[in-house]
Write a structure and sequence with these properties.
Strand content: 5-15%
Largest sheet: 2 strands, antiparallel
Radius of gyration: 18 Å
Number of helices: 2
Structural class: mainly alpha
Order of helices and strands: HHEE
Distance between the termini: 30 Å
Shape: elongated
Helix content: 55-70%
């Protein structure tokens, strides 16, 4: 797989994850504002917010792990030495 194909696949996956996160946020907002009783935070809303948080953090960081409670890292790209 070439770099351009890999970048295209990565962009496609990020767009799908962004759409999914937007829909999860819309579900939380709809459930909180429209569904009776209004303004109630129930288990469903908490679960959707947790899922949204995990998706956003997993997409933002290079290494995301919940195994040791929470562990996140981000690798900086190393600059090539100038010749």
């Amino acid at each position: 797989m070439s770099k351009s194909e890999e970048k295209g696949a990565s962009t496609f996956v990020r767009v799908l994850i962004s759409i999914f996160c937007f829909l999860l946020a819309a579900m939380v907002l709809f459930n909180y504002v429209v569904v009776e009783p209004k303004g109630e935070i129930n288990n469903g809303i908490v679960f959707l917010l947790f899922l949204l948080l995990v998706l956003v953090l997993a997409e933002s960081f290079d290494n995301f792990s919940l195994g040791k409670l929470v562990s996140i890292t981000r690798e900086a790209k190393k600059a090539l030495p100038l010749r």
